[in-house]
Amino acid sequence: MGSRSIPWSRGFSEGLATAGTYLTIGNHGHTLRAMTADQLRKALHARPFRPFTLYMADGRKLRVVHPDFVAISPTGRTAAVYPEGDDGADQIDLLLVTRIGLQRPRKDA
User: Fold this and answer.
1) 34: which of 25, 69, 75, 97 is 20 to 30 A away, CA to CA?
2) Which of 30, 8, 20, 99 is nearest to 62 (CA)?
3) Which residues are CB-neighbours of 75 under 8 A, at least 6 positions away?
4) What is the domain partition of the chain in residue ranges?
5) Rg of the Cα trace of the chain?
């Protein structure tokens, strides 16, 4: 099963990206649309749910295998991502999520 990475600057055919905040990252002036809490909620509440990977600006990749493994803060600025089989969580700033990789659906499903 492969995954498909979708840069925030392009938008999504799946409807996950809406109007967002644009950021300039690094010395090369790359413009990215920052992830919002609403976009993350859409990915988490999609039916059927599709596991995905959050790609962070610092190079980290955080895999989300179930919607219960993410908690979004009341302000929507940060989220806690719990890895499968671990009690610890990665606290992330959603403005630093550069893209999301959606797992492709199985062909036999």
Assistant:
1) 69
2) 99
3) none
4) 3-103
5) 14
Smallest CA-to-CA distance from 68 within 54, 96, 49, 93 is with 49
Q: Taking 90 as the threshold, does the pLDDT of residue 70 lie above it?
A: yes
Can you say whether residue 68 is alpha, beta or left, with left for phi > 0 and alpha for psi between -120 and 50 degrees? Answer: alpha
Encode pLDDT of 75-104 as tens digits: 999 999 999 888 899 999 999 998 888 887
pLDDT per position as a tens digit, 18-36: 333 444 444 444 455 668 8
Is 71 in contact with 77 (CB distance < 8 Å)?
no
Cα→Cα distances 87→4, 69, 82, 83, 90, Å: 28, 10, 7, 8, 10
**Helix, strand, coil share of the chain (percent; to 5):** 15, 35, 50
